[in-house]
Known about the structure:
heterotrimer; A: alpha/beta; Rossmann fold; six-stranded mixed β-sheet; 9 helices; 10 strands; 36% helix; C: ABC transporter involved in vitamin B12 uptake, BtuC; two-stranded antiparallel ribbon; 11 helices; 3% strand
Amino acid sequence: MEFQKKTLLKTVDLTKRFGGLVVMNKLNMQVTEGEVHGLLGPNGAGKSTFFNLVTGVLKPTSGKIWYDDVMDITNAKPHKVAKLGIGRTFQLNPLFGDFTVEENIMAAQFLHPHSTVLQVYFNTPTYRKNEKEAQKSTNDIMEMLNMTAIKDVKAAALPHGYQKLLGVARALAVKPKLLMLDEPLGGMNPEEIHFTLDAINTMNKEIGITILIVEHNMQVLDICDNVTVISFGEKIFDGTAEEVRDDKTVNEVYFGGVEYD
Amino acid sequence: MKKNSKLLSILPYAVILVCFLIIPTSIDKMFWYAAFISILAKMIASVGLRMVSLGGDMSFAMGAFMGLGAYGAAIMVTKWSFPFWAAIILAAVFAAIVAVLTGIPFARLRSIYYCMTTMFLGIFLIYIFQSFDWTGANTGIKQIPKLFGGKPAINYWYFLALAVVCIFCMWRFEKSRIGNTLKAIAQSHEVAASMGVNERFYRLMAIGVAAFFCGVAGASYALYYGSVVGSTYGMTLDLWIIMFFMVGGKDDFFGPIIGAALLGVVNEGSRTFGSYAPFLACAVLLLVAYLLPGGLASIPRTIKKAIDDKKMKQVDISAFSSGSDGKEA
Amino acid sequence: MFTGTIWLGIGVNTLMLASMYIMAALGFAFIFNMLGAINLAHGNIYMIGAFIAYAICYYTGLPNWLSILIAALITAAFGLLLERFAIRPFKDDFSRIVMVGVALMFIFQTSATLFTGTKTLSIPLLAEGTVRIGALGISNQKIIMFVIAVVILAIVLFITNKTKLGREMKAVSQDRLGAALQGIPINRVAAIVCAIGCGIATIAGGLMGSYQSLSSGMGDTITLRILMLVMMAGAGSMNGIIVTGLIMGFLDAFFPVLLSGSLATTVTLFVVIVILLIRPKGFFGHEM
């Protein structure tokens, strides 16, 4: 294990303005392969903007986003970004409410294995093989996240914690190298937080997915290796999870002391 | 159990098909042949509309795509003396190409703006044909050599076969993963994109497929009827196709089929009342709107749900408790 | 190529058509803005209102202006029923509201066709004679139509901008739930607005019916115009339809001078579609 670890995601001077409002100012950060990276910040710090910039929903005003050391994904479309191996969940977690849990995960098995439209339409052997593979991987994901028992329940009827977890399961089905979780703990009770953190840890340690968590809940520090903290679109801290607890600026931002003028 | 439910799901299609086999051949043949040919053509178009609606937005331009097929075939047969089969296929391809090309800028529009602007588009496309003398201006194209010599019986069997083939092709489209992907896009296009789905490509494909089958139906109808007049394919036809789709129910593949069959038969059958005819069809529309929120195809579903409700609830509860046990362990 | 006289003529026609379109569209636009519901039958109320005015005028011998006024009151009462039975139950269900709208549309059209038969009907002119400006003659009828429209629009603008009803309408169109929580009786406001809209549409229909002849097809024509100008204005804008109404009026006054019948409509439709593609939510609209 003495290889130089790859930088999976790297932003260079990433800036986003909406009219005159600067929501992200020259952000430089990087996510190394294999780690759990936390992107923390209070509400309105620009965390969701960062997410949307990386996944191609928004276009940056200036700056670059590099993926896997060499690939420039600054202006890529959302579905292209997904194709490259960046999976994501959503803060407000829009599920396919009409689909069951199983159908939700099956629908997400769109790229891996991918069948072309003609293969699908004419039900070719390749397609049938792919579909079997997708079914198997769906079963694996459901098993890993303890969802097999509720596979036939409509997503809209699930309790909140399970809906969030289903969002993660669906992002996993994209078979990402980098999984980006947008506020995975939002609106959860302590028990749900506990099992979600467990699930994230399992994904990182057992499957080896690199994870980027965006949160304002400091509890994620328990599972993070490295942490970046932003406030009002500016980076105020970059370091390990242990260091962040003692950092003065971060404490100021989180627990008051910051001056709003 | 599984085999049973599969049989049950085929049953309604079989019933409709048998009705279409028996009714026109048993009573007043000339009248019902003509009526059913028109119903079948519109049925294909309203199933086509369902293909578009899978992606989340309803197009109000389906009648115009039929019109494109009709005009295309009429021009090819009268002016360039193409054989029938080539004219029908090429006209349908023409309709599909126009639909996809116009669909590219239209992807910017959403919800009600999409519906209304496609309606303007439909009227616009037909008005183009009505504006130039070469395409017959307001009087349309007349004296097209008729399909199968204009014999009603053969034409009827042709249209019935055509409808079965077209609807089967679209059924495959919906029931395959393509249909599922479109349904996913309809529920949340952001999430679909995050899974790697090229949303725009899929929606354009749906509208292309729909327009192709509308084109086939329109082209065949023009050649059967022997003339094309632009006003036939205007706003009224668009609205009728949408009514077939909505009366049948928009949550079910069977919806537009039963809608077109019932409303079409009511509409054509009431021709005997002369100018009062549309009242009966409007009564059906109002009844369905007030009494059946999910359309005709939702009747068995509503009944089944009422029966299953209690049982389902128990299953859900037990599923959750075992799930949480697993995660605590 | 265009002389001053032609431009002046186009200008006069623009104002006249725009004022009629705006009056016909008001009711539709109010309901669309407030409830997000499209009432496809509205254009045909304009048509049926004109027929009612004709019938009153023809059978009772009342003067034409009084007939139009009575017809407006009748359709306004009908508007209350329309809101109660065709819009309120289906507010959030697009497909059912379209179904009911289309059913009413066909019912009105069929009734009108049955009434007309093969005759050509027309409400007597409100005013004879013409005013001459240089080489251009403007009929008094057009002037009267425009004056009536301006007066009515001024009243409507006053209601929407200055009165309690107007403030309630604005609140509902911005946030229906919020307005309901504030205690605004949405249903009652919608019913009043629908009634006013139907009445004004009937006045427009009656005026057009005395300027041109009556036909059951005039409902379809105006429905298309209403949809185009309301979509161009966008959801949630009360004053926007005046601007888009002028655009619509200009397109319908300008192109027929240049091009023959169908081609003029084609070009008009094309312009509207392009505008909507450039501004997908209309000029003044917000997200629905």
